[in-house]
TrEMBL record:
This is MTH1187 family thiamine-binding protein. It comes from the Bacteria. Belongs to the UPF0045 family. GO terms for cellular component: cytosol. SUPFAM superfamilies: MTH1187/YkoF-like (SSF89957). It comes from Streptomyces tagetis. Residues 3-92 form the Thiamine-binding protein domain.
Amino acid sequence: MIVAFSVTPLGVGEDVGEYVADAVRVVRESGLPNRTDAMFTSVEGEWDEVMDVVRRAVAAVERRAPRVSLVLKADLRPGVTDGLTSKVETVERHLAP
């Protein structure tokens, strides 16, 4: 499964980069395939391990922010691995002249 999620600290002002970095650090240290862009962090793995990473990423932000918003989207597709890469490669192949 692939989960794309965004953790946003609330009540800490407009500059939230250091709080978001706490969440992304948890994801990167998990060892699971992941990718971060301007809006979401995506992580790939089995249900329990991915949801544990999301839970721990939220907890990392909760430690320093009075309120946290979580947006999550999941693609559950049994038997598929390396979806983070293969999905993008498929689109790129269709874009190629």
